[in-house]
């Protein structure tokens, strides 16, 4: 695939809508003194944290930042900008989305501009490397999944957090026992069906979901089938619930905070909302259950990429270096995100936070949500077929076989 095609042929790009760019730092400088930064739309608190960190960057470098918050589908807008070669200088890029842009040769390699690479979690760096082994994004922060326990709800069923098993199969048996003791309308546990929540557990059985040739490998592993069948059985027998399908809520955290469920497996992004919106709710946090005897969780990593077509590439590199280096502690402190450098986590003393320490400790073994350019296709087909299994229209074995077949057919056509 050529750079001119920008690797973006799978979508037509029209109508990219975004908030107007805001200049942060000083007034109307020329392009050489301005860095254009694009980010996803975020909550006001995170926007304020970003503007605080930008102010620190401006003080350190003398460069202003023109901030653009993209309110429509973020990656669609970015791809359209790359297709037109009218890009920001630097932008947020999730690890799952990075491989396509890296393969399209539209990003500036950052190996020579990164400092202290051994301070980052190695799998975070690996997610942003290309086939040439060069580094194309600098990780700025991440989230992991953990098991959240509403201690009051668990107590209603006669249990305490210490009773919660640490392995998957015993945990699911425990969930069933808890459900039997809860009143009607309450859930022992809520779950999400996306592959992004299950990839680490599935790969605990020893086979990658996408092989070295870029083909889906979903079917034929008995352990994976049994693992996913647990969710189908739990949904059918009504001891596992979907927050959206069963409670009409897009937010597992809201279901948890409002007392609708005793347990959930979710990310550290829920902590701020739980503490702010549900301050009366007492909760404990534990690592996700071991699967096949192995510790597992997912890591959702966000990096900073620099466009080859930016008006101020040097400024974009400077901002990426700052956010992933000298400015990381300030950013993490203000935003509540987890720093991708071990030294910054130590500086912020996260290991002594009873909630955040669970998430940061999991980074050592976490599976990054990123599996090359084939992941979007495999993810969509898995989601469609697993939903069919959850709804009872096919078995899990059939769903996995169909997902693998359909994904590989689609990949072969690309």
UniProtKB/TrEMBL annotation:
Keyword annotations of the record: Signal, Transport
Domain of life assignment: Bacteria
Keyword ATP-binding: no
Keyword Transport: yes
InterPro entries per UniProt: SBP (IPR006059)
Family (UniProt): Belongs to the bacterial solute-binding protein 1 family.
Name of the featured protein: Extracellular solute-binding protein
Pfam families in UniProt: SBP_bac_8
